Amino acid sequence: MDCRAYLQEARAGQRQQAMALLFSIGVVAALAILAALLLPTLIRELDFRVARDERATLKTFGTALQSAIRRHAYIPSQTNWANTVAGEAGMASAAVATNPRGQPRLLLIDTNGWFNPVSLPYTQTSAGSAILPLNPRLIIASSLGKALPLSAGPLSAGEFTNLWTAAEGTTNFPTNGLWVGWNGRSDDVKLERVNLQPLFVSLRVETYRNEALNGLYAIGTNNTLYPAIYDSDVTNNPPRFYLQNTVLKLYSDAGNLDSTQILIRDSAFKYENRVWKGSVGGGATPGGVDIGGVVYDFLNAVPNTEAQNGAAQQRLVIQSMMGYMSNYIAWANGNFTDNGLKTYLLNTVQPNMISTVQGLFQGNANAYYPTNASGP
To answer: Residue 250 CB: number of other CB atoms within 10 A?
Structure first.
């Protein structure tokens, strides 16, 4: 091959390499431009997903915290809340204490109300709380950006209120107090607000003043029997406040178990005629039966269309019973001294209630027996 042909071939190869290099540079430049255009969008999408997941995670933690409090009758402090939540949610404590951006999640405590005189951790005793649980509020706080200018634990009343009412990414987010000089973004701050007040119920346990011996009771896992104070001693027997799901055991004066109650709502029990009753005018305690549920089931049962007032008879029965009880309670509240009310109960209210109940299955002609083909 002569030199001229060799040189021509070499130049052609160089041109091809140059073109390939230019093409590669063009591709890289195009990718760089595309990345510059898309990267902010991708980052925003990633931030959105992390923020969405963190909100959901904090909500899960708030639910788990309340569940654990009811289960163990124990409210943790800022130092061990993560362990409590982790045990309830089946997670590692480290995964609860730290968010995906490596920032600590903080438990903040309101000092506006109940957590002012009552310090955490709180372990419920058989005595419960004599203080009405007002504003027992907590915040689980997490930042996906700059570290929060806060320390875990109790916040001053003003600092906590400002944060409780704050909204993410808005102008009403705190800028004073501890937040002065903080240059993070408010929409990076995620807050789970937890109000524990609905978890508390009131309880009053007492013995009727004319009873010779006190009824006895035990609270929670403590099997110690305490005497129920006489109802005339109002000063020494104010209502106590317990966490939901607390177990109450009621005993006779001889120490025999009468019933076991699970406290799910405000309750009062009185020992009268050596029997525990749910109220002044109530019958013996129903051993855990949900009276509200019984009434609901009765009203929604298949009606006897041949009853005295047809399908309306069940509603009339409930109304007559409520009328009787309201009048009886009024009589009892007057220490049973109102003879006029007593006569009205005996001669009017009670016969009306009995007649209404009988109307479920018989009338003047004794012809109101169930005939529903689909009925029981």
So the answer is: 21
**Omega of the bond prior to 121 within 30 degrees of 0, cis?**
yes
Q: Does some domain include residue 223?
A: yes
Report the chain's terminal Cα–Cα distance, integer Å: 112
Q: What are phi and psi of 306, to 5 degrees?
A: -95, 10
- Number of folded domains that form the chain: 3
Q: Are residues 205 and 281 in the same domain?
A: yes
The string of pLDDT tens digits covering residues 160-195 is: 999 998 876 555 788 899 999 998 888 899 999 999
Could you tell me which of 54, 143, 49, 57 has the C-alpha nearest to residue 104? 143
Express each pLDDT in 255-264 by its tens digit.
999 999 999 9
**Do 212 and 272 reside in the same domain of the chain?**
yes
How far is 19 from 17, CA to CA, in rounded Å? 5
- Look up the domain containing 87 and give its range: 43-195
Q: How far apart are CA 69 and CA 131, in angstroms?
A: 18
Cα separation, 72 vs 243, in Å, equals 9
Residue 270, burial from CB neighbour count under 10 angstroms (0-12, 13-18, 19+): buried
**Same domain membership, residue 243 and residue 188:** no
Tell the residue number behind the tokens 């042909």, with chain if given. Answer: 5
Domain match, 261 and 151 both:
no
pTM for this prediction: 0.65
Q: Would you tell me how many other CB atoms lie within 10 Å of the CB of residue 143? A: 23
Cα–Cα distances (Å) from 95 to 66, 140, 142, 366, in that order, read 18, 14, 13, 71
H-only helix segments in 276-367? 291-299, 313-333, 339-344, 350-358
Same domain, 130 and 182: yes
Instruction: Give the number of other Cβ atoms within 10 Å of residue 212's Cβ.
Output: 7
Q: Are residues 285 and 323 in the same domain?
A: no
Bridge partners, 314 (sequence order):
none
